[in-house]
Amino acid sequence: MSAIAASQPLPETRASPAFRFAMLLPGGLVTFFLILFALGLVIFLAFRGNDGSLLGVGLTAANFVTVATDPLYWTVTLRSLVIAGLVTLATVVTAYPVAYYLAFHAGRRRGLLLFLVTLPFWTSYLLRVFAWKIVLAYNGVLNSAFIESGIWSEPTLAFLNTPAAVVVTLAHAYAPFAILPIYVALDTIPKSLLEAASDLGARPFTAFRRVVLPNSMPGVLAAALVVFVPTVGDYVTPAMVGGPASTMIGTLIQSQFGKANDWPFGAALSVCVMLVILCVVLVARGADRRFGSRT
Amino acid sequence: MSATRTDINTGGRWLGLYVLGYLVFLYLPVLLIPLFSFNNSIQAAFPLQGFTLEWYETLYGNPVLSGALANSLVIATVAATGATLCGITVSYMDLYGRSPLAATISAIARLPILIPGVIVGISLLILVNLIGLGPSRVSIVLGHILVALPTTVVVMRSRFAAIPKTIREAALDLGASDWTTFRRVMLPLSAPAVLSAFMLAFLISFDEFIVVFFLAGTEPTLPLYIWSQLRFPRSLPTVMALGTVILAVSFIIAGSAEILRHRGLGAARRPAAAKPA
After folding, report:
1. CB contact under 8 A, A127 and B243
2. Residue closest to A237 by CA, chosen among B117, B174, B105, B96
3. N vs C: which end of chain A shows fewer Cβ within 10 Å?
4. Is residue B270 a part of any domain in this protein?
5. Residue B276: half-sphere exposure toward Cβ, Cα within 13 Å
6. In terms of residue numbers, what domain contains B142?
7. Residues 6 or more apart in contact with residue B62 via CB below 8 angstroms
8. How many residue pairs bridge chain A and chain B with CB atoms within 8 Å of each other?
9. In this model, does residue A291 exceed pLDDT 90?
10. A247 φψ region: left (φ > 0), alpha (ψ -120 to 50), beta (else)
11. Interface of A with B in 39-58 (CB under 8 A)
12. What are the CA-CA distances from residue A37 to residues A229, A253, B18, B120 (Å)?
């Protein structure tokens, strides 16, 4: 065995088939069966008619025709895109200075700060949304605090059940997602680039605008993507703090698999959402290329 | 890292204040839950009405709640085991398998990040109905393996990548089989990361709501129990007491996982993104 090994240049090339099979099996099962096959089922179901059975009946594009022609779905899709876009913008813009501080100014506090900004990521999403419900409620924290401090005399209904409440809640819930990708991008900018900029006479702001910002764009785009994807399909936050005026596309999908009980139509809506996300990913990829991805 | 020029230093000080404010925004709403869980009022509102442990007492002797807790613990343990096993094998083969298949599997394993939870939920709902499982605890486990997989893959991949290549090559050159190298060399070297990946996967499953909503049968998990209680204004304080316990446990587990992830090797100096970009 050792003689054979010595004659071979790369240890990698002699992996036994049994070992490879055993090591590839769990991941292969999960990825091909639970991810690809399950997504294939959704696409298949999207082209079926609803007859109450599990996989529907016939082969039809009627579901997509309904989505395309009924203005309700355009309104809800547009609203989802606007809400998710605003959340993404707010999250990324507020996270950038934090990531910048972590990368360039944090010093010895960096480890602790990184830990503190990622910790909420591991706490229950449902509880984070619930926290906003008690903050914004009619007889909730914000109203009672304002009345207690004498700013208002009457509680206001204006907080809860508005699209703005959805944006604030989602921006808070997904805030920790945005910092890490931006931080990693900033942290991997070669320090020599910054020194070169300042040696060549660039003022700090110019150096930031012309050197740091473009070089961190891959991280910004990655951050935007990991915030945009879960928010555009969210149905929990609209249900908890959004009210009827904040119905999002995820809400509609969820109701098709629940109360409305039209699985093929829900599958068609899901396919549309995936197409929208695909477009966003492609745009982000294109932008990433333009900024010269280092990843 | 500290800049020599004063204008950058003052900028850093302002930025530090901003970071402080950001942390307050991040934590304040969540910390209201523990605050009001000790408040002697059925409403979460100021002024505070005095200290009480009454709401915590309502948590005891609630059979539905303890059933949901037991469910959550069992599901999270099994799902975390599965997700960690997949994370280890997928990332190991991605780095050392030298096959397009292994790279493909690793790429697909991180795909769930680009799919909203609601679609993961309904796709699995269709799948488990098709194979006859239906909404059940097994289905929830499958769903949570999927949700936790990107995290375990990223944690394990960064740890395996941080182990110097020469160690593995030395083992192979000295005649150890692939299996022996994996089990006796690479796995022990990444043991803290394995534990960390397991704990994070456990937390993800334990707290997960969006996917489990579609896959639960008659036995709810803890987040589903909370969701069902939110309809009743009277149970608001109980939910806050339960939420406080869950938050405390989450903080402790996440903190330990973070410490473990950076222990040993001294290699993981640069923190791996919790979510791959």
Report:
1. yes
2. B117
3. N
4. no
5. 22
6. 66-261
7. none
8. 300
9. no
10. beta
11. 39, 41-42, 45, 54-55
12. 21, 20, 46, 12
Three-state DSSP at B220 gives coil
The two three-digit tokens of residue A69, written as one number: 């022609």
When pLDDT is averaged across residues B89-106 and rounded to a whole number, the result is 90
Alpha carbon distance A235, A48 (integer Å) = 24
Query: Is A234–B118 a contact, with Cβ atoms under 8 angstroms apart?
Result: yes
Please check whether residue B261 is in contact with residue B84, taking contact to mean a CB–CB distance below 8 angstroms: no
* pLDDT, mean of residues A176-188: 88
CA distance A191 to A255: 52
Query: Span B43-72, mean pLDDT?
Result: 82
Smallest Cβ–Cβ distance between B119 and the set A5, A119, A273 belongs to: A273
pLDDT at residue B104 in the model: 92
Find residue B51's DSSP bridge partners. Answer: B39
Q: Which of residues 258-277 of A touch B (CB under 8 A)?
A: 263, 266-267, 270, 273-274, 277
Subunit contact A120:B30, Cβ cutoff 8 A: yes
Mean pLDDT (whole number) for B70-89: 95
The answer to the question of residue B189 being in a domain is yes
Q: Tell me, which fold does domain A67-290 have in CATH? A: MetI-like fold (1.10.3720)
Provide CB contacts within 8 A for B98, sequence distance 6+: A12, A13
Number of domains in chain B: 1
Residue B266 lies in a domain: no
Mutate to test the interface with B, among A10, A30, A45, A288 (most CBs of B within 10 A): A30
Shortest Cα distance, chain B CAs vs residue A88, angstroms:
15
**Do B126 and A267 count as a contact with CB atoms less than 8 A apart?**
yes
Nearest-CA distance A98 → chain B (Å): 6
| A99-to-A33, A216, B95 alpha-carbon distances in Å | 38, 10, 29
SS3 for A291? Answer: coil
Residue B128 near residue B134 (C-beta atoms within 8 A): yes
**Residue B79 domain-assigned (yes or no):** yes
Q: What is the pLDDT of residues A7-24, one digit of tens each?
A: 444 544 566 888 888 899
Provide the CATH number for the domain around residue B138.
Answer: 1.10.3720.10
pTM higher than 0.80: yes
